[in-house]
């Protein structure tokens, strides 16, 4: 891997006709347009985001290098390499079948080749692969690059909460933001109207010409995909993780047929606990990120009206089966993220002695893992749940 | 109508066993407990709220006179007077069949008799009957009484917006708050878990012992009906009216099968326009009333997942029929409140020259009444909707 021109000769003939990286690149230069963008990950959301980006780089040649490289974990699909399929047929047949991709989007199976000379790295891989990818990238990227994480969730342990963009930032030494919203990948890929939120505080070493809110807006916004750029990474990240617990509580209520009022009540109480959690563990995060952003209230709305967590809880309530039984029987071995998050959050808030501030999260955990009956939820939400501390009020 | 003891002799034998008003009453006394409570209106929501109140007055005899009078617009049902049915069978067979009412809830067909000596008046009648009821009450109530309006909506005209509690207050000279939330009446009546919001700023002539947030909480809160008391009447009222326009926009998107992302986007954008509208016409109203209260985000969630406005818009989108055709054919002559509100709000914001600040409301109006196609919504939400003012941004 020496320079882009050589590395590209390995790719299919279709791709060889693409524009080469047109500006002079150097690891020590100040960030300035046109920016070179790489997407790390090519699942259904990764490919969808890469499609959006490639549409925008083509329309904004002064701001972006048109060619967008997408790292593909190479695998065989119907007798061919997935990267070859993407580069010749311009469809990710395995993870996003039926969606035509722009021909300036190039699949690259070599991770380091995919990111070489990039100024903007978009992370879009499953959470559990992050460590490995980061260790491969360490020392092999432009140290002045900027990053956006499209990964879901938080890293929670007994002592606290880490944001995934901070983990990326700490591992690679590059400034990292986040993108999240009410974004079912298939709908976005089909160009059905959606909105999203990008969280990106300007870095301490920001200088004019560097990646800023306008650059990110231009990179992600499409007529069918509306972008709002804010500064609050923590609020977006907390909302994205905690929504799954709330979807479970709403699913319980749905399964017991308590009605629309009760579902709305769970959603509302969940939203308040989200905000309380965010503000407790990340004092700088903003209430409006939860209440006014696509990554907040809109994503919560979507998550609480369907999806795996909602469905698992609904079936638990209908059948009386345990969470793990339902997960095994109904979800075909797929895990419901809300189960893991509910447990992690319980362990954290118990360790911190603040379970009583989060009666919805805590009661949902107790129902999921300790056979507490769902009917106790309204009682818990009145903050009468702790017999040992009867005078508690939030 | 001379005093309570005489008037009660007209009511059925069951009721004669009820406790009489037990404290000395006078129109000139300072407000103090026990408070006498009357409910004006006995539709399904009126009867449901009266049921809640009667449950609470019975449990809190030091704070409230146990007997709760509910004014019933007298009509015949299955050969009997509705008030007699309620007082003998303790069921409102016409408007809330199948729900047992507490026997300390007494139906009174005479409006002035129903409110005599009352300290707390709960208004729960259809919007269109308000003027007439107010003119009958004027001069015939305790001038120191306090009121809560459970009526929906706003009074909108070309020059501005009036809050219904203010209309009650101006007509009767009594301080008036509001109660609203994600409250489908039937679910509350069946004691399925719900939440609500009460808006009640303390009046200027408040003195200790008067109706306050604790009194109102105790009057309305039940284990199955959780109450949050705040001060912001305007926020609650605006949310209650404007949600119906948003439900129409979500219904359009549902009818065109744009998917969950788009529905969440409409809800979110609608929420933002609600807030903007509230703050514009009532600068003192709080963002949190919209984003954190049952009367705000929770009621919006419920309204946008079902109900008459959502359904009307969905069918319009599916069939291409006009709003009025759908209203006539599908809703059995019932009106969709969102249609009226969309038109009233359009006329107001047009008159004020601020349509461009409310692209969702305005575009929804244009689709409803002027045959604009639904597909233009995303474009409108990018604030490119006005050709004459291309540089507009919100």
Automatic annotation (TrEMBL), chains A, B:
The active site is at 243 (proton acceptor). The lineage of its organism: Eukaryota, Fungi, Dikarya, Ascomycota, Saccharomycotina. SUPFAM superfamilies: 6-phosphogluconate dehydrogenase C-terminal domain-like, NAD(P)-binding Rossmann-fold domains. Its EC number is 1.1.1.8. The keyword RNA-binding does not apply. GO terms for molecular function: glycerol-3-phosphate dehydrogenase (NAD+) activity; NAD binding; protein homodimerization activity. One of its GO terms (biological process) is glycerol-3-phosphate catabolic process. NAD(+) binds at residues 41-46, 185, 308, 337. The keyword Metal-binding does not apply. PROSITE patterns: NAD_G3PDH. This is Glycerol-3-phosphate dehydrogenase [NAD(+)].
